[in-house]
Amino acid sequence: MTVTTDLVSYEDALASYDPVMGLEVHVELGTRTKMFCGCSTELGAEPNSQTCPTCLGLPGSLPVVNAVGVESAIKIGLALHCEIAEWCRFARKNYFYPDMPKNFQTSQYDEPIAFNGYLDVQLEDGEVFRVEIERAHMEEDTGKSTHVGGATGRIHGASHSLLDYNRAGIPLIEIVTKPIVGAGDRAPEVAKAYVAELRELIRALGVSEARMEMGQMRCDVNLSLMPKGSETFGTRSETKNVNSLRSVERAVRFEVQRHAAVLGDGGTIVQETRHFHEDDGTTTSGRVKEEAEDYRYFPEPDLVPVAPSREWVEELRAALPELPRVRRNRLREEWGISEHDMQSILNAGAIDPIVATIEAGADPVSARKWWMGELARNANESGRSLDELPITPEQVARVTALVVDGSLNDKLARQVIEGVLAGEGDPDAVVEKRGLKVVSDEGALGVAVDEAIAGNAAIADKIRGGKVAAVGALVGAVMKATRGQADAARVKELILEKLGVSEG
Ligand SMILES: Nc1ncnc2c1ncn2[C@@H]1O[C@H](COP(=O)(O)OP(=O)(O)OP(=O)(O)O)[C@@H](O)[C@H]1O
Ligand SMILES: [Mg+2]
Ligand SMILES: [Mg+2]
């Protein structure tokens, strides 16, 4: 199918249609070994060095279920308010593709481990939107193919393909939403917020780092349109493996516009998979989608059913961490900041470092100030995330303590942080080595103040005459003379005292 129709504008599309979305998110679990064999899941190894007869599907091999994989699936299910199956099975999803040497993927079909849940997501204006979860099931990842030669580097036109089966058999949890209706023109925002919230949740559970840029979490975006007023779903398209939050948002938006164009022209949408292109935000046709029956699903005969005991499930439920959205709202209130500020903190990945810094003794305002200011800037400039910076929350807390007890002012504190980041050691060591200390010796300060007054007689007269605002110039002179190592507030007090002027 080729669509040559011009796209309909997003606004026009939504004037005539209601979007229906379905999001399938695959999460690679952070288990040490694969789902059905003992091969390592460590990234970056030589291609095909982490394989065995089981994950290569050689005759005679037998799979064994990874218990940590099952436990992670239950945790995810519980955090999504799902029911946990008392008994469930794996199923073979049969299809032929070179990245899957067994010729089937071990998955779950009509007996998923978790089903019927929901995830509440918070939109930018603070409104909460509930996304219903159909199921979360266990499966395994496929190998990785790289198409080389030819002009395009894509499978069509490539001269050959390279296959690496290190990824084949790594545990995946697929989380599938029920059709999401009622999002209206906020469908792209809802999709993005859902994936973002799910990612936070997965990280909070500690079951995966869920780094989308590394393929540890990827989203298939299903979309269809219904004419306004209708309640019958249209045919969906399925945009595969979208791998960033921004792309999820753009893929929904583009598909809304494309569907509207096809339908508006009297055309029909074919059920197919599509590929998203980051460069221009469009999607192009992949393959016409198999119906479930084409996969010839049947229960996996080589694996025993999974029947998690209720005691185990309840133990896992009791140990669940606070949900990220709840925690965020609690922190937002404790810190007295706006939703918008909280969003910036989230986007910067600064929540955990800030919380850890507060736990190490800093006050919330300073902890936020350093992580969102100096440290965020440094991370940005060096292309690192905050948690990759060579400074610990304890060290940041120590710097704030030195500011509070008056040993450092903000300017000196910045230099201390700079020193820690440069590998000069702990804050105290940097203070020592660089000789950074606020001049708090009142005698020395007094001399510097006297000199500043003497050297700027005209300004001093102005201040005496009532122009208190001019004191800034004298404070500046003292700070300069002490190479920034004085407490500016104390300097100002001293100057006014000596000039016999009171502020205000
Ligand atoms: N008409 C529709 N419009 C939009 N979304 C839909 C529609 N029908 C179903 N969906 C959603 O699409 C998703 C379908 O995912 P599901 O895993 O059930 O099937 P699949 O895509 O056929 O299978 P898979 O990709 O795993 O082989 C679900 O999120 C579902 O809610
Ligand atoms: Mg699916
Ligand atoms: Mg699908």
UniProtKB/TrEMBL annotation:
Question: What's in the keyword line of the UniProt record?
Answer: ATP-binding, Ligase, Nucleotide-binding, Protein biosynthesis, Transferase
**SMART domains with a match to the protein in the record:** GatB_Yqey (SM00845)
- Does the UniProt entry include the keyword Transferase? yes
Query: Known Pfam families for this protein?
Result: GatB_N, GatB_Yqey
A GO BP term here is: glutaminyl-tRNAGln biosynthesis via transamidation
The keyword Protease is annotated on this UniProt entry: no
Signal sequence extent: none
Enzyme class label: ligase
Q: Which GO terms describe its molecular function?
A: asparaginyl-tRNA synthase (glutamine-hydrolyzing) activity; ATP binding; glutaminyl-tRNA synthase (glutamine-hydrolyzing) activity; transferase activity
Tell me its EC number(s), please: 6.3.5.-
Catalysed reactions listed for this entry = L-aspartyl-tRNA(Asn) + L-glutamine + ATP + H2O = L-asparaginyl-tRNA(Asn) + L-glutamate + ADP + phosphate + 2 H(+); L-glutamyl-tRNA(Gln) + L-glutamine + ATP + H2O = L-glutaminyl-tRNA(Gln) + L-glutamate + ADP + phosphate + H(+)
Sorted alphabetically, which InterPro entries does this protein's record hold? Asn/Gln-tRNA_amidoTrfase_suB/E (IPR017959), Asn/Gln-tRNA_Trfase_suB/E_cat (IPR006075), Asn/Gln_amidotransferase (IPR018027), Asn/Gln_tRNA_amidoTrase-B-like (IPR003789), GatB (IPR004413), GatB_Yqey_C_2 (IPR023168), Gln-tRNA_amidoTrfase_suB_CS (IPR017958), Gln_synth/guanido_kin_cat_dom (IPR014746)
Q: Which domain of life is it from?
A: Bacteria
- What HAMAP family does the record point to? GatB (MF_00121)
The record's PANTHER family line, in alphabetical order, gives: GLUTAMYL-TRNA GLN AMIDOTRANSFERASE SUBUNIT B MITOCHONDRIAL AND PROKARYOTIC PET112-RELATED (PTHR11659), GLUTAMYL-TRNA(GLN) AMIDOTRANSFERASE SUBUNIT B, MITOCHONDRIAL (PTHR11659:SF0)
Assembly and oligomerization: Heterotrimer of A, B and C subunits.
**Family under the similarity heading:** Belongs to the GatB/GatE family. GatB subfamily.
| Function, as annotated | Allows the formation of correctly charged Asn-tRNA(Asn) or Gln-tRNA(Gln) through the transamidation of misacylated Asp-tRNA(Asn) or Glu-tRNA(Gln) in organisms which lack either or both of asparaginyl-tRNA or glutaminyl-tRNA synthetases. The reaction takes place in the presence of glutamine and ATP through an activated phospho-Asp-tRNA(Asn) or phospho-Glu-tRNA(Gln).
Its recorded name reads Aspartyl/glutamyl-tRNA(Asn/Gln) amidotransferase subunit B
What species is this protein from?
Streptomyces wuyuanensis
